[in-house]
């Protein structure tokens, strides 16, 4: 009989896995709680305006391109990936700015304006991180089922460049003297919801990835990529069921036997969980059935920060801002301390603003534009009351004014907001938008395993498992988990359809 795999959640990880599993001789059903696919990467549509809920930086498309190509489709024919140049603007509070560009001589000139020594060191930084990524990539592409895997040749080869006890900022000091230059190459830790002063030095590869491989904007938003994955999955025969939350993973002994949906039992030979890890464990698997990841253990783990979001549909253009702007407050360190301690909201926070219609007018009605504002804030705790959002909203508008965007209120046609509380209500544990923190003690074999260690025939995919949060590594987690699942079930690859052909209809798949 054809094995049946149930996927819990249609976020990026669940969708990419669906494709990879459909490529093998299995029947795949994907249950998504929401009425649309994409999860934190879904699109928000209102009154002709389109916003990305979460991701706006589409980095390192190579992983997803490979996944899609392995299924006989071409990602670039499904979605128009626009490479941005400049990639983004870094606006420092004191007035200096860097327009980050992959044109390295131009970037070097901008950095040299801060410190000639730092400008001269840019090529060495790039070369070192090129080697670091090449050495560490095999480790990111494999699963970590036990501590023994830390001694694998892939990890041992990467160790000399890993400097496990050093933070990103400390590592950057070897190349760059000027604190603002270091900030320009380390604020990316925020993508993981972390501080450059705590984030492991491995992650200097984040800024390198941008400069080496570019920052892309998918036309229609990152959510358009998720919709494309959904289209491809359906063409490959995946049964996608929207608005169907999984209520429980059914287990017998320690083995998953299926899922409970809408009060009924759906048998499955394996269950792949894409829902937020900690929340999914607490709600879908009884505490007594978990040995390593009990409720108590989950509560003691360290979690990323959260985000306060505004999505604004605006009349007219916002000429003051390029496509992406990162505003870095002078008291960046104090900002990070507030995030870490979680007791209060910073008065003058660093923020990120996307003004995507500069590049992509399809996102708003004619003559209008969209603004997406992200303020990093502490994850949910008893110290900050998110029932009252007026102060947080006012602060966000103040930061927009600091960036030169004034007279906005009367031009707002659409306004949506997300707070740590709303993230939590969407099933994200403590509203920690970037999952478990990426500290070394919560990475590799110390992160929840792709082949879930507490139950048989349960696999994890997405930001809560190895390698971590962020689209390229989430897609990598789909490869690792799908590979483990296929190995365990002995699933073999189907014959490949010719490139970009919607040839794999469900009827045809039955005959393969
Ligand atoms: C504000 C923000 C900005 C970000 N910016 C970037 C960026 O610029 N670049 C980048 O690479 N990454 C970014 N990320 C990080 C990351 O890429 C996204 O969070 C990504 O969507 C996480 O994907 P995931 O596969 O872990 O699943 P999720 O997106 O969390 O999706 C999980 C899915 O499971 C569903 N689900 C949950 N419970 C159930 C259930 N019981 N039954 C059925 N379905 C269920 C959910 O509805 C959801 O659709 C950002 C994240 C956030 C929040």
Explain what this protein looks like in three dimensions:
The chain is an alpha/beta fold. It has three domains: 4-41 and 57-80 and 221-301 and 435-511, FAD/NAD(P)-binding domain (3-Layer(bba) Sandwich); 103-210, no CATH class; 305-429, Guanine Nucleotide Dissociation Inhibitor, domain 2. The protein is 33% helix and 20% strand. It has helices spanning 12-22, 62-70, 75-78, 104-112, 116-140, 153-162, 168-172, 179-184, 205-213, 222-235, 277-284, 295-300, 332-341, 390-402, 420-425, 471-489, 506-511; strands at residues 4-8, 27-31, 43-46, 49-52, 58-59, 81-83, 88-92, 97-100, 215-218, 239-241, 246-252, 255-261, 264-267, 270-273, 306-315, 324-328, 351-354, 368-377, 412-418, 458-460. A seven-stranded mixed β-sheet has the order 8-7-16-17-18-15-19. The protein has a five-stranded parallel β-sheet with strand order 10-2-1-14-20, with helices on one face. Strands 5-9-6 form a three-stranded antiparallel β-sheet. A hairpin with a 2-residue loop joins β3 (43-46) and β4 (49-52). α1 runs parallel beside α16, α5 (116-140) runs antiparallel to α6 and α5 (116-140) packs across α9 (205-213). Residues 498-512 have low confidence and may be disordered. The structure holds flavin-adenine dinucleotide.
């Amino acid at each position: 009989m054809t094995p049946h795999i149930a996927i819990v959640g249609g976020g990026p990880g669940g969708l990419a896995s669906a494709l990879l599993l459909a490529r093998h001789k299995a029947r795949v059903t994907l249950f998504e709680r929401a009425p649309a696919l994409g999860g934190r990467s879904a699109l928000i549509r209102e009154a002709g305006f389109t916003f990305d809920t979460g991701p706006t930086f589409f980095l390192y498309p190579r992983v997803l391109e490979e996944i899609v190509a392995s299924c006989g489709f071409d990602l670039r024919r499904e979605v128009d990936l626009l490479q941005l140049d400049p990639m983004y603007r870094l606006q420092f509070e004191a007035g200096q700015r860097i327009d980050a560009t992959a044109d390295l001589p131009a970037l070097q000139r901008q950095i040299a304006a801060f410190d000639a020594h730092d400008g001269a060191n840019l090529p060495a930084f790039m070369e070192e991180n090129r080697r670091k990524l090449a050495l560490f990539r095999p480790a990111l592409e494999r699963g970590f089922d036990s501590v023994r895997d830390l001694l694998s040749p892939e990890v041992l080869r990467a160790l000399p460049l890993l400097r496990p006890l050093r933070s990103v900022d400390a590592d950057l000091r070897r190349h760059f003297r000027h604190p603002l230059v270091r900030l320009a190459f380390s604020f990316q830790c925020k993508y993981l919801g972390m501080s450059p002063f705590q984030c492991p030095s491995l992650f200097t590869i984040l800024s390198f990835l941008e400069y080496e491989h570019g920052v892309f904007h998918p036309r229609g938003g990152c959510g358009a990529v998720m919709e494309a994955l959904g289209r491809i999955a359906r063409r490959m025969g995946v049964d996608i069921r929207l608005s169907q939350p999984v209520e429980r993973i059914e287990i017998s002994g320690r083995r998953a036997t299926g899922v409970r949906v809408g009060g009924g039992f759906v048998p499955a030979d394996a269950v792949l969980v894409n829902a937020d890890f900690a929340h999914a464990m607490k709600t879908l698997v009884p505490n007594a059935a978990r040995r390593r990841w009990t409720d108590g253990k989950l509560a003691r783990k360290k979690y990323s920060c959260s985000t306060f979001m505004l999505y604004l549909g605006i009349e007219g253009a916002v000429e003051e801002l390029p496509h992406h702007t990162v505003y870095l407050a002078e008291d960046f360190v104090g900002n990070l301390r507030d995030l870490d301690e979680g007791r209060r909201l910073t008065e003058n926070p660093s923020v990120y603003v996307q003004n995507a219609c500069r590049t992509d007018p399809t996102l708003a009605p004619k003559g209008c534009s969209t603004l997406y504002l992200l303020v990093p804030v502490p994850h949910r705790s008893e110290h900050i009351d998110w029932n009252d959002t007026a102060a947080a909203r006012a602060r966000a508008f103040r930061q927009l004014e600091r960036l030169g965007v004034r007279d906005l209120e009367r031009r707002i046609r659409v306004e949506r907001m997300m707070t740590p509380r709303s993230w939590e209500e969407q099933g994200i544990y403590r509203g920690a938008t970037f999952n478990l923190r990426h500290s070394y003690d919560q990475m590799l074999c110390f992160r929840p395993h792709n082949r879930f260690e507490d139950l048989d025939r349960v696999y994890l995919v997405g930001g809560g498992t190895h390698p971590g949060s962020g689209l390229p590594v989430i897609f990598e987690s789909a490869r690792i988990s799908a590979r483990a699942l296929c190995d365990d079930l002995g699933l073999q690859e189907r014959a490949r359809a010719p490139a970009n052909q919607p040839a794999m209809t469900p009827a045809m798949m039955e005959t393969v």
